[in-house]
């Protein structure tokens, strides 16, 4: 496992497929996981926000990890979201994930209660101590109401199993400094920052848009690694219209991803309307058509 890219570079925050009845559709989950890996994803993140973790049960989360692990085998990295507002519950989910075959844990900052930084730090440390799995800290203050402050992140980086960050802080300056100072593997959690964060030493991305355009997003990193920075910038720019519609249109990424892939969402989420679906399909088609243009 690389210390710079412990889970690879190109990770998809995978949707959780449901049957028309609303039940978990493990067969379709396995099919999607296999497709994403074949299309260039180094790893998959299950049971995150995109995976509708607030409305799936603990048993469903575990079943999803087991089913996807069985399909994709030991090669791709498989992380699972275990973060809740309750430290004890989060630690228990972490232990279940380890038994189910996960390679790592995505742990979001405790939400709603807005704990102070000392409590945030204690939460992550207790979860990291609950298993032998490496931890990716999920810093998304826009959803949780609480940021993992840089000073807290520096201390967390001292724990041997806290190795990565899914960065939705929208603070590129702080992220660049923390990459340089801590050695933490920073993964962009915002598609518009995939290339900028990578350029300052980031490890890659955890992307919702990768559910529908995995090859196109990976191509940006491939071009950058090959030394073609102008080409990487062009490819990145081509993904932005779709990313904007999927992630900044006022609808959750889960809804927009499923608008393109099909399948129901769980309430309180509601499916996208026809106009939105048509716009998303148009943006995806434009990206696919542009792929062959040098």
Automatic annotation (TrEMBL):
Record-listed pyruvate binding positions: 50, 206
Family matches, as CDD domains: DHDPS
Principal cellular location given in the protein's record: cytoplasm
Database matches in SMART domains: DHDPS
UniProt cross-references to Pfam families, sorted A to Z: DHDPS
Taxonomy, superkingdom: Bacteria
Keyword Cell inner membrane belongs to the record: no
Gene Ontology MF annotations: 4-hydroxy-tetrahydrodipicolinate synthase activity
Annotated localization: Cytoplasm
Keywords on record: Amino-acid biosynthesis, Cytoplasm, Diaminopimelate biosynthesis, Lyase, Lysine biosynthesis, Schiff base
Matching Gene3D superfamilies: Aldolase class I
GO biological process: diaminopimelate biosynthetic process; lysine biosynthetic process via diaminopimelate
Role summary: Catalyzes the condensation of (S)-aspartate-beta-semialdehyde [(S)-ASA] and pyruvate to 4-hydroxy-tetrahydrodipicolinate (HTPA).
Name of the protein described by the UniProt record: 4-hydroxy-tetrahydrodipicolinate synthase
Chain's gene name: dapA1
């Amino acid at each position: 496992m690389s210390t710079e890219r412990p889970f690879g570079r190109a990770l998809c925050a995978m949707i959780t497929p449901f049957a028309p009845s609303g039940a978990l559709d493990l067969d379709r989950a396995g099919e999607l996981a296999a497709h994403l890996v074949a299309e260039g994803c180094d790893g998959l993140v299950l049971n995150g926000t995109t995976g509708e973790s607030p409305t799936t049960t603990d048993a469903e989360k575990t079943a999803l990890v087991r089913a996807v692990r069985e399909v994709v085998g030991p090669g791709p990295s498989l992380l699972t979201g275990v973060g809740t507002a309750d430290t004890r519950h989060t630690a228990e989910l972490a232990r279940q994930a380890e038994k189910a075959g996960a390679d790592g844990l995505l742990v979001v900052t405790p939400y709603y209660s807005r704990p102070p930084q000392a409590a945030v730090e204690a939460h992550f440390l207790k979860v990291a101590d609950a298993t032998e799995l490496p931890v990716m800290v999920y810093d998304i203050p826009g959803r949780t109401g609480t940021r993992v402050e840089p000073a807290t992140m520096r201390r967390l980086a001292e724990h041997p199993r806290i190795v990565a960050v899914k960065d939705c802080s929208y603070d590129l300056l702080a992220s660049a400094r923390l990459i340089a100072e801590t050695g933490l593997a920073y993964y962009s959690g915002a598609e518009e920052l995939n290339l900028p964060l990578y350029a300052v030493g980031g490890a890659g991305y955890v992307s919702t848009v990768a559910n529908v355009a995995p090859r196109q997003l990976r191509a940006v990193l491939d071009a950058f690694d090959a030394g073609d920075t102008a080409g990487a910038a062009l490819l990145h720019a081509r993904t932005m219209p779709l990313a904007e519609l999927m992630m900044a249109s006022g609808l959750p990424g889960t809804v927009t991803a499923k608008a393109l892939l099909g399948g129901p969402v769980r309430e309180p989420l509601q499916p996208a309307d026809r106009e939105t679906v048509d716009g998303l399909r148009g943006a995806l088609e434009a990206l696919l058509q542009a792929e062959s243009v040098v």
